[in-house]
Specification:
- This protein has 487 residues and is an alpha+beta fold.
- It has 3 domains: 249 residues, no CATH class; 139 residues, 3-Layer(aba) Sandwich (Protein Transport Mog1p, Chain A); 52 residues, Membrane-bound Lytic Murein Transglycosylase D, Chain A (Roll), CATH 3.10.350.
- The protein contains 15 helices and 18 strands.
- The strands form 4 sheets. Strands 9-10-11-15-14-13-12 form a 7-stranded antiparallel beta sheet, with helices on both faces. It has a 4-stranded mixed beta sheet with strand order 1-2-4-3. A 4-stranded antiparallel beta sheet has the order 6-7-8-16.
- A hairpin with a 4-residue loop joins β7 and β8.
- The two termini are 21 Å apart.
Length: 487
């Protein structure tokens, strides 16, 4: 978290960002294999032609790196991905296509492709996968998008939709009509994407079977994503992931099983569970230390030396730009950092004109846990905003709470969150550590209950089941490996 936003946005625009939680990504690190067509960041394919499709991928790649958290380096995983992609490319519809594979530094579960062979997987997706064949299924799906030129078709459609919406806005001079037209064009793009996804599923299953991997891995991982999404939704009504832009999972699973049957019986092909989990051992899990951590309802940032605890009604999400929160009663919060001149009183900043609909009489200079602060209320576009700014050392932080109806209860909840903001002590900051994936061999007396008790996550039992592809009421076999999340 925490990046200063441009001050030209309206108050409503700033807060509505909290309601639309963005997909988060981040990336991986070195040349992957002896195959000159396969690379992992930061090395790029020197032999690739920088024209046509590759120009689009090359243009968009730095934006993705900048926007979604940078490169995540893990040599063991990079080596394994290189070996997998080399096999998949040889079995693909275009073995001559060069690829650049990037591990995105994000806990969300996602994967995608850009024209020119740019493939992306998040570390969250790698951590959800239970074996090499499942990762192969994801990468084969994305390779299918490249060989089928789906990204180019999307690019063309997106450009056409953007031009159309701009024409409507210019001609009608009607912002509401323009929004409606843009929404319609986005629905059309989503429908178009659905057909592409199903085609990529079919090609992907065929490719992993040709490459010698378990053809049923695609169906298995789709089920894992569905269970992951259910687990995420249990803690949030607004948690975007890989499934948010793809066709419904039951349909895809059924199709994937049917397609796998065409290539062999269950048990055919390489799975490689233990070797894959060994490669994940030690991988960062959850929030990146540079962005602070969400621990239940509390946000802590050892580097900045700050913390606050939100009302339990809010489900928090940490992003590179801000901490976002949503609640079931149509309220939202955003916490970020801002640039305020050192000598400017915070009450003056609140009244400086960046906020639409400010109630000047509500501006209240105050202190919060010994820190200079100021609060205010603003009303705009049917929303009421409780806003607070707090100065800690040379940094200034901002809370924005949005509500359709700022009742006394809702406002008390917001003020309670604001009042919890404080500096961390040096001892507290030193004790905060990131979570890691640990590959553990199941012992003779181990059960799902005993193993999940070792998890340092919320909802330990359900999270353990989802991360290890286990059904409720089942125990892993002794001698096999499982993933444990711990410090």
């Amino acid at each position: 978290m925490v990046e200063t936003l441009p001050t030209t946005r309206t108050m409503a625009q700033r807060v509505m960002l909290a309601a639309g939680l963005a997909l988060v990504f981040g990336l991986g690190g070195c040349k992957l294999s002896n195959d000159e067509r396969i690379y992992v960041d930061p090395i790029r394919p020197a032999a690739a032609t920088r024209t046509g499709d590759a120009e689009i991928g090359e243009r968009e790649h730095p934006k993705i790196v900048t926007t979604y958290g940078g490169i995540y380096e893990n040599r063991a995983v990079e080596k394994r991905l290189g070996q997998v992609v080399s096999k998949l490319v040889a079995a693909s519809d275009d073995p001559s296509q060069p690829y650049r594979v990037t591990i995105l530094n994000s806990p969300t579960v996602n994967a995608f492709a850009l024209p020119g062979g740019y493939l992306y997987v998040t570390r969250g997706l790698l951590e959800l996968a239970s074996d090499t064949s499942e990762v192969a299924a994801v990468l084969a799906h994305e390779i299918a998008h490249v060989t089928s030129r789906h990204a180019i078709e999307r690019e063309d459609r997106a450009q056409a939709a953007a031009v159309a919406s701009q024409v409507v806005a210019d001609v009608l001079n009607d912002e509401q009509k323009a929004r409606q037209t843009l929404a319609a064009s986005e629905l059309e793009l989503a429908s178009f994407s659905r057909a592409q996804e199903l085609q990529a599923d079919a090609i992907g299953v065929r490719t992993i079977a040709r490459a010698g991997f378990d053809p049923y891995a695609a169906a298995r991982f789709l089920k894992a994503m569905d269970r992951y999404a259910d687990l995420a939704r249990a803690g949030s009504d607004n948690n975007p992931d890989f499934l948010s832009s793809h066709p419904s999972t039951p349909e895809r699973v059924e199709r994937a099983v049917e397609q796998a049957r065409q290539h062999g019986a269950p048990g055919s092909g390489v799975v490689d569970r233990d070797g894959y989990l060994d490669s994940l051992d030690g991988m960062l899990y959850g929030d990146d230390p540079g962005e602070g951590y969400i621990r239940g309802s509390t946000f802590v940032h050892p580097g900045l030396g700050i913390t606050f605890t939100a009302s339990k009604d809010y489900s928090l999400q940490n992003t590179a730009k801000a901490v976002l929160g949503t609640a079931a009663d149509d309220t939202a919060l955003r916490f970020d950092s801002i640039d305020v001149p050192a000598g400017q009183p915070l009450a003056t900043y609140l009244a400086s004109g960046w906020m639409s609909g400010l109630e000047e009489s509500s501006v209240n200079p105050t202190t919060i846990n010994g820190l200079e602060a100021a609060t205010a209320i603003a009303r705009s576009d049917g929303w009421t905003f409780r806003v607070a700014v707090v100065r800690s050392g040379s940094e200034t932080y901002r809370f924005i709470f949005a509500a359709r109806n700022l009742t006394a209860t809702v406002d008390s909840r917001a003020l309670g969150t604001i009042d919890s903001f404080r500096r961390l002590t040096a001892t507290e900051a030193a004790r905060i550590r990131p979570l890691r994936v640990r590959a553990v061999t199941v012992g003779a007396g181990d059960t799902t209950q005993s193993l999940s008790a070792r998890m340092a996550t919320a909802n330990r039992y359900a999270t353990f089941l989802v991360l290890n592809g286990l059904e409720p009421g089942t125990d892993p076999e002794p001698g096999t490996k499982v993933k444990i999340i711990s410090y």
